[in-house]
């Protein structure tokens, strides 16, 4: 049985039309090549051997997701230095125009003029932003970003934000900078990547306090992560409590295991039922992005 068939068996058994994956990466080729080299070298923000499971050309990667039944996905791009975000946003806009099942994604960086290109991205129809605090090495509450966050907040565009201190802490790790950001912009819709690993409890607490905070399942609960940053057993009940605010994410193609593994671990979580799985694999994201309902 091939992987695509196994993936489809899961969502079909739940009566879903497919999957929405809010955490996938498509980038300009030269950027993706550099990202893969960084993983190959187990760079400082990776910290361990990390084979890329779906290393192939862009068209084959698109075919793979579609074969899995992924109905909508993202092109999470992120800058690591100034004067990079505008170019990435232009690329991501063009990619979304050519790829109707990709949610138009944009990014930002603390630099003069950030509010201008963020406004341009919103006006051009961006449906999602990506903020990578680790790689960008910036404080999300940096005053340079304040107006830009206000634009995103007013437009109600979700932001997938890598802000937990896993897999290796960066310069501004953990929930404190994000808490400061939400105090300034409490209506922001933040999708905390990787369930906020390893500060799972702190980010669940933020989801309790702010209606706009959500979490994506990217890499969480898999053996690869559990061996170093396990999800606390005491918090499993809170997964049920937050059934409407958890979204499926895979980190495709940059994962060191199969896509099917990212799905199976969710189906095996203690106390989880089909209603929860339907919400996480499709319904919550469909509601957030205005996709056809299940």
From TrEMBL:
GO cellular component, one term: cytoplasm
Parts of the chain that traverse the membrane: none
Keywords for this protein: Lyase
Domain Amidohydrolase-related residues, every copy: 20-291
Keyword flag Transmembrane: no
Pfam families: Amidohydro_2
Protein name, per record: Amidohydrolase-related domain-containing protein
Lineage: Bacteria, Bacillati, Actinomycetota, Actinomycetes, Mycobacteriales
């Amino acid at each position: 049985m091939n992987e695509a068939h196994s993936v489809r068996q899961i969502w079909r058994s739940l009566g879903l039309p497919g999957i929405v994956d809010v955490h996938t990466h498509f980038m300009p080729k030269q950027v993706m090549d550099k990202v893969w080299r960084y993983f190959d070298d187990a760079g400082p923000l990776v910290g361990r051997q990390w084979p890329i499971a779906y290393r192939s050309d862009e068209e084959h990667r698109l075919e793979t997701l579609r074969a899995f039944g992924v109905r909508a996905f993202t092109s999470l791009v992120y800058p690591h230095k100034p004067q990079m975000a505008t170019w990435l946003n232009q690329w991501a806009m063009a990619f979304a125009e050519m790829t109707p099942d990709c949610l138009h994604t944009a990014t930002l960086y603390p630099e003069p003029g950030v509010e201008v290109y963020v406004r341009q991205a919103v006006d051009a129809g961006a449906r999602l932003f990506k903020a990578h605090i680790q790689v960008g090495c910036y404080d999300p509450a940096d005053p340079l970003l304040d107006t830009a966050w206000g634009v995103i907040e007013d437009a109600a565009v979700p932001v997938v934000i890598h802000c937990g201190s896993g897999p290796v802490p960066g310069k501004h790790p953990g929930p404190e900078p994000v808490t400061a950001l939400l105090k300034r912009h409490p209506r922001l819709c933040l999708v905390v990547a990787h369930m906020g690993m390893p500060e799972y409890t702190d980010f669940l607490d933020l989801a309790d306090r702010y209606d706009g905070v959500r979490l994506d399942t990217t890499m969480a609960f898999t053996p690869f992560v559990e061996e170093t940053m396990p999800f606390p057993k005491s918090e499993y009940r809170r997964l049920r409590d937050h059934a409407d605010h958890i979204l499926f994410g895979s980190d495709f193609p940059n994962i060191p295991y199969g896509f099917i593994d990212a799905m199976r671990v969710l189906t095996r979580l203690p106390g989880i039922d089909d209603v929860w799985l339907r919400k996480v694999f499709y319904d919550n994201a469909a509601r957030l992005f205005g996709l056809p309902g299940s």
